Amino acid sequence: MSKKKLIVKGVRLDGRKWNELRPIKIEGGVLPNADGSAYLEQGRNRIIVGVFGPRELHPKHLAKPHKAVLRCRYHMAPFSVDPRRSPAPSRRDTELSMVIRNALEPALFLERYPRASIDVFVEILQADGSTRCASITAASVALVDAGIPMRDLVAACSAGKIDSEVVLDLNDIEDKEGEADLPVAYMPKLGKVTLLQMDGMLSPEEFDKALNLALEGCNKIYELQREALKSRYVKQGEGRSAE
Amino acid sequence: MPQYFKNRDLVVPGDILAEGRFRAGENTYRLGGKIYATRIGLVEYGRGVVSVIALRSNYEPRIGDTVVGAVVDIDLGSWRVDVGAPALAILNVPDAIGESFKQEMALPEIFDIGDVVVARVVKLNRDGTPILSTLGPGLGRVEEGRLVRMTPTKIPRLIGKKGSMVNMILKETGCQIVIGQNGVILVNCRDKEMEDLVVQVLEKIENEAHTTGLTNRIYGFIREMKEKGRDE
To answer: Are B86 and A243 within 8 A, CB to CB?
Structure first.
């Protein structure tokens, strides 16, 4: 059986070019009972993030005397994939929770809130590939919405290799059938990478190309994050804020 | 000393605000000679200082703040109160009833878990835990009313210059309003329709705190809503 072609006449299965992102929609402040929240759609990904804190940490023995503890929970809803999956956290969920935490931690001033905790809950409502990147993008908007001081926004985006070509922002089928996947999280204003993983095989040249492509994607996503945050305060037609 | 924004421009965390001999004020930090924003808000360039007026912020307690919070736990001789700070606030018996703790006191009869109290921050522990007191006029257990949440940094806007905003709302609606610096506001009216109106007004202030001429706009809004209410 021959493998399904992922790129036909220079166009990917969902009609994108090699360097094109999926359509993205970000909205901040969607949950009234969370301290901060965000909703994100990236292609068919749908993700909601709630942020709580800094608040008193329970159980207390987990508290760090010199800084706050960032806790993340990545969870896929049972209906987020086909076939339906178990709602219990899987090994993959546990690992991605850690990956998201590590990607966000460098952006936060945890040392300002000793013994406290900052809790980030990421719920995948519908999954379509690169959810770890989309989760980081959404979580960083939710953290700003919670008013938690940050060094920079964290934007995340994946690149990869399908049908021997390096492409941006893999979706589910490209991730599964493709040759490599390279998720990257990036703080654009500080120029720092906070997450870099690779799954599959890339030559050193391909790796460089994919990394630069992913960083470019991060910069585009960063602009969308900014817009989403600002749009709550600057309404169209109403002009700029004050004076 | 380059500035990268105009005064009162909207900035987000990570935006480079200025370079060189500025001092990093509120909601900013300095790294490698550049000053970055840490919260979303409006940038202010003062005399040698750059700061950001945050539009979203967590509550950072200060001595003298009036706060509204719920009792969540009872210890030996003290209550723990959730005021939205990084740590639960402590309310000791002497600060609550004016006499020292005695073994036979039944603390739940004074404040029970779930009670909402209006209190004042009298001290911050070395680890930043706020110590509260409910001794004083207007402080103590809340008997009735509605709680509305607002970002703590917008509380000054709700109060207005010398209380201009809140006094206007009080006068127009005849409601009782207790403002907690932690962003929890207690609204209590005899007229429940007025209470709904005040809640709407608070939402409007939350959304438009960064715009100018807000007090007049809110005044117009209240008048309009009152007219509508009378017509129906």
So the answer is: no
**Residues A10 and A17: beta-carbon distance below 8 Å:** yes
Q: What is the mean pLDDT of residues A71-92?
A: 96
CATH topology of domain B146-231: Ribosomal Protein S8; Chain: A, domain 1 (3.30.1370)
Q: What is the third-level CATH fold of A22-229?
A: Ribosomal Protein S5; domain 2 (3.30.230)
ipTM of predicted assembly, 2 dp:
0.91
Task: Output DSSP code: residue B3.
Answer: B
* CATH number, domain B10-54: 2.40.50.100
Do residues B118 and B138 make contact, with C-beta atoms less than 8 angstroms apart? yes
- Residue A150 has its nearest CB partner, among B38, B88, B128, at B38
Query: pLDDT tens-digit profile of A43-68?
Result: 999 999 999 989 999 999 999 999 99
- Angle of the B192-208 helix axis to the B164-173 helix axis, nearest 10: 160
Please tell me what DSSP assigns to residue B46.
-
Name which residue leads in pLDDT, B208 or A1.
B208
